[in-house]
Amino acid sequence: MTHQPVQTPSDYVFELDAGCTCLDFANTLTFGRDHLNSYADLLAFADQAHLITPEDAAWLRARAERDQHSADGVLVRARWLRQAIRGIFGNLAAGETPRELDLDVLNRDLAESLAHARVLAGSGGGYAWGWSGRDLDMLIWPITRSAADLLTSDEQRQLVRECGAPDCLWLFLDTTKNRSRQWCSMQSCGNREKARRHYQRMRERRDISPGAAADAPRGRGRARRTPAAPVGDASATAV
Questions:
Q1: 87 in helix, strand or coil?
Q2: What is the pLDDT, as a whole number, of residue 198?
Q3: What is the three-class DSSP state of 150?
């Protein structure tokens, strides 16, 4: 594997609106685009998703600079985990049973990650899950646990959906009241699909109108002409 520089933080801004950490992580891969091309990208995702502290991020960046070989190994492991998460919850969104291979990958990673899990005392006398130790793979620990928590939750597991746009594979939790969410984001895929469907309807009307006019009964007066369809696809709503 070619070493990638890690000293410069990734400037990519991840979209984190899937409703669950592990699904946001799965969405770092889409049609023809992989946003995890270096350890710096993985670090940027964890930082933006608030999976690590700023102090952790600085420590990890410095450690990765000293040991690029290990950092590259963590990136490979993260990609395998992402593929398993994508397979598991993509199957569930389609009403299918996840593959045993994907579950095996998740369970192997879970065994490594949960070895670092701890119950820590919080403010106000409460307790919460936390992590002990620092290592280059600490970015993966909360992602793996997120996938396990989602998969074992009977309620949350049923809310996993895949974006309805044909050129998008993003996953999300449908938490709308009537469970009617179709798009990973209304601002991107939703608006694009609405524009595409509107354009398609307008095009079908243009295709039908001339024939309909030709079949109309002839009267004594001059027949009303139907405007000819424009040459090419000139609709402003086309995407």
A1: helix
A2: 41
A3: helix
Per-residue pLDDT reduced to its tens digit, 162-220: 998 877 889 999 998 887 677 776 555 744 555 555 445 556 566 676 555 455 444 44
More confident residue, 82 or 125: 82
Distance CA 113, CA 145 (A): 8
Using 50, 70 and 90 to split pLDDT, how confident is the model at 228?
Answer: very low
Give exposure, 185-213, as e/b (b: 16+ Cβ within 10 Å): beebbbebbeeeeebeeeeeeeeeeeeee
Residue whose tokens read 């009537």: 178
Cα–Cα distance measured from residue 63 to residue 71, given in angstroms and rounded to the nearest whole number: 9
Tokens of 10: 């990734």
Phi, psi of 130 (to 5 degrees): -150, -170
Determine the Cα–Cα distance for residues 177 and 89; give it in Å rounded to an integer: 21
Q: Which residues touch 138 (CB under 8 Å, ≥6 apart)? A: 52, 56, 60, 116, 131
Task: Describe the chain by its helix, strand, coil percentages, rounded to 5.
Answer: 50, 10, 40
Question: How far, in Å, CA of 76 to CA of 162, rounded?
Answer: 25
DSSP classification of residue 55 = H
Instruction: Name which of 70, 77, 89 is nearest 20 in CA terms.
Output: 89
Distances in Å between the Cα of 35 and the Cα atoms of 9, 24, 104, 202 are 13, 12, 24, 36
pTM for the structure as a whole: 0.75
Instruction: Please check whether the domain covering 21-177 is classified as CATH 1.10.3300.10.
Output: yes
What's the one-letter identity of residue 27? N
Hey, where are the domains in the chain? 21-177, 185-213+233-239
